[in-house]
Amino acid sequence: MNATLFLDLVEKYFKAVVGKINETINGSKTEPTMLHKSMLTEEYSPDLTWGSTELKHSVVAADVVALDSPLPLKSRGSFSNATGTLPKLGVKYRKSEKDISDINVMRARGVDEATIVSKIFDDTPKVEKSLDVRKEIMFEEGFSTGITLVEDDEANTGTGIRVNFGYKDENTFHAITAPWGETGYNPIDDLEQMFEKAASDSNAINYVYISKKYFNYIRSSVAGKKLVADFKGQIYQSTDLLSQPSRQSMLDALSDEFGAEFRIVSNSFRVEKRDGTYMSVTPWAEANIIGVPDAVVGRLVYGTLAEETNPVTEVLYQKLGTHTLISKYSKTDPLEEFTAGQALCLPVIDGVDSIYILHADGTGVISTDVTSLEFTKAANTTGKKVTVHSDYPFTAAVPAAATWVTLSTSGNVVTVKVSANSASSAPERTTTLTITDTEGNTAEVSITQAANT
Question: What structural domains and CATH numbers belong to the chain?
Fold first, then answer.
């Protein structure tokens, strides 16, 4: 690494630019609300473990890399496993030889210094905000699901960060009657489950976080319309005549009903992939509704970067906040100017015993279209089919001793085949087919084959 090619101006303005940048994100006039900034407290980890002129540019999320990895260029980033150790968030932007030449020409022609400085530092705000975006993505994923996962979609083995914060199964709920948005769903009754469980645990739910889509499901539901009408003291002859309430009316009615503040999460970020194309990322698990007692739900655990205590010769650094390091430098062959940012940190969700989660997109019930199958003593190689109704992926199994039963699964259908019960005077034989989904819900189907008499 070599010194920046614009040393005089970088030394003069670097600190001010890093500290005072005011730009929009993703071309929007209003910055997305960075929930992690208000919902996490910062905590230093000395051993690097967790116990996680024109300055308007699109901002993309920084890549997550291994602690000893070089910072990747944004278009060629990769992720690496960092489980148990604070991951290094890194992003780097490059000015090509032509960009450098253009700036030098501007200086030679006497263009005003403010314009030249804006060109030299136009990557700096992107670096700064990009790191914030990555932290926000990790936080919203972790808070809405209990797991934060940053995966390299081009790696065969799926490397990345995967941290499970241990959300409690007993604090997890599903829709009672139907997934939200489908016929017969009642979001008010479904929400009541969380609040009743919290009360029985001597906990309080004071804040509820919900996606815009599922908040609107409440507004458009019969139960939601009725709740607002009753809250306002409206008289109506039929719920069919009630109109969809406004956003604020719904928020007010929910707050009155449950004694909690409902907060709508609707952040979306544009992330650059390796091939230079972009994809939109909505980190909040849309159908998950989270209830918590406090507005602060965890920590942003951070550590000291190696370059902070062992700076590279010729590289210029500026510290942003407690844990972000911004640097400027150049390289030759080819001639390039770089602006890089890095941080060692991880959003960590705490207090999971008092976090409640409602999966509003399913009932959580697994069922089958039949509860028993009967076969003659002869072999059945065609099989009989069992249709499974489940909100989640499932597996089908019979006890190991039932070697006479063969199973195959395609989509939501399990096919059961049996070999002949051909032994002399063989008695009737029975076993049980057990369907288990990824949430641990089960359904059983009895299997009986006739005796050989």
Answer: 7-165+293-350 (3.15.30), 169-267+354-359 (no CATH), 367-449 (2.60.40.10)
